[in-house]
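TASK: fixed-backbone design
INPUT:
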């Protein structure tokens, strides 16, 4: 839309923006988005009845004559995005954009925990990191916020470019690049190019600062001509750190450039693969002058949730639940960490890795072969992709079939890693094992 000002005036009078007609807080602004199976325009009248003061629609047939509570636009999604960009520009809040194949949500949460110790912070809630979630996050910004952290996800080329053009971040952090969503990206090179769209934007902006994981050669190359603050395991970095324990929770020491004394931190995170995520949060906090003792307190207080490397102690077993997402990079890292972990009677329940395209079978076979090389004996595989590989492990087509088997033959005295793509619903397996 050419002039966002009239809609922005309505937004400023509202309590919040909602795109879900089932959730219409009093005083909110409803924006009628369309999907493959729904048309938000059809629910605008109900949204107004339920508490919204105005409704933005893009289908004139739902516009009652003379009703000033409706605001007609050409395209509701574009209006949402334009409104968010305008609001972001109006407030001018410094924004850190975070993306990456693995760890971006955990890094965002850790970074938010650290920055919140010193600043009035706004940050992405949950995984609202797409073309709808990012605008909604930006529209939650208020004048009192001093900083913002915005997570950005992608599954196709150009996705990150679309999001940075809306959020216009001032700082950037790419956690890593790996083999995920290959069905959409086409190749690993496509992943690199797409994630790199964050750095491309900051490069065009000029003078921007990026936080770079020094242990990752791809990221260093992607940021070679930008102002970098590096973190990692090498010495003499902006922030350096080393793992000091991992059974089962990650413990580490870190120190900032120029410091002689290291800071010791005991986290509630599982896995050495979380070390870069922690160091990223430290680097961001240190850059924004959060005192070291507050950084340490934030890291030690943070407890993961949403099936992301959670440790659950049941009456019969210890569960390590990492069932929110899976790709070859994160799966291998989880397996390697579990292999190194000091625990008796280990068991693995692994589910398919989704959206890998034509490479899917080969990539699943690599994981199975890696399990063999690690010497794991007690392994259960779930899903059609793992079923198609060559292996000697019991395999189940889906989570309900496995749950039925576990009710008959329930494991006891085990430490169990549960990991797979969210679509496999392996969280229900964890729930079943947690029941008495």
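OUTPUT:
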């Amino acid at each position: 839309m050419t002039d966002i000002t009239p809609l922005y005036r309505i937004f400023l009078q509202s309590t919040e923006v909602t795109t879900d007609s089932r959730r219409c807080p009093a005083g909110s602004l409803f924006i009628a988005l369309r999907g493959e199976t729904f048309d938000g325009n059809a629910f605008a009248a109900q949204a107004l009845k339920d508490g919204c003061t105005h409704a933005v629609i893009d289908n004139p047939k739902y516009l009652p004559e003379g009703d000033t509570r409706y605001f007609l636009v050409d395209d509701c999604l574009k209006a949402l995005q334009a409104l968010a960009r305008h609001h972001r520009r109006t407030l001018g809040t410094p924004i850190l954009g975070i993306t990456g194949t693995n760890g971006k949500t955990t890094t965002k949460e850790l970074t938010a925990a650290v920055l919140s110790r010193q600043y009035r912070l706004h940050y992405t809630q949950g995984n609202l990191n797409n073309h709808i979630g990012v605008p909604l996050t930006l529209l939650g910004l208020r004048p009192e916020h001093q900083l913002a952290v915005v997570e950005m996800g992608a599954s196709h080329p150009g996705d990150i470019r679309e999001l940075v053009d809306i959020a216009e971040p001032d700082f950037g952090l790419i956690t890593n690049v790996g083999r995920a969503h290959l069905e959409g990206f086409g190749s690993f090179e496509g992943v690199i190019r797409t994630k790199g769209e964050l750095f491309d934007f900051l490069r065009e902006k000029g003078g921007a600062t990026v936080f770079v994981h020094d242990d990752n050669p791809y990221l260093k190359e992607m940021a070679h001509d930008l102002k970098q603050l590096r973190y990692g395991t090498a010495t003499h970095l902006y922030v350096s750190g080393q793992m000091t324990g991992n059974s089962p929770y990650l413990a580490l020491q870190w120190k900032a450039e120029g410091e002689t004394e290291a800071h010791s931190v005991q986290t509630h995170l599982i896995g050495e693969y979380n070390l870069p995520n922690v160091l990223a949060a430290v680097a961001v906090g240190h850059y924004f002058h959060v005192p070291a003792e507050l950084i340490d307190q934030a890291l030690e207080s943070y407890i993961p949730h949403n099936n992301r490397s959670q440790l659950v102690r049941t009456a019969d077993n210890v569960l390590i639940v990492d069932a929110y997402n899976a790709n070859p990079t994160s799966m291998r890292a989880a397996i390697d960490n579990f292999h190194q972990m000091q625990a008796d009677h280990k068991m693995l329940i692994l589910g398919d890795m989704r959206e890998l395209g034509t490479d899917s079978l080969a990539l699943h076979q690599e994981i199975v072969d890696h399990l063999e090389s690690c010497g794991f004996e007690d392994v259960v595989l779930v899903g059609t992709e793992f079923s198609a590989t060559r292996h000697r492990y019991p395999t189940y087509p889906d989570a309900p079939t496995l749950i039925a088997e576990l009710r008959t033959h329930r494991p006891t005295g085990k430490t169990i890693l549960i990991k797979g793509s969210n679509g496999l619903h392996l969280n229900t397996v964890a729930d079943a094992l947690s029941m008495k």
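COMMENT: The first strand starts at residue 17 and ends at 18.
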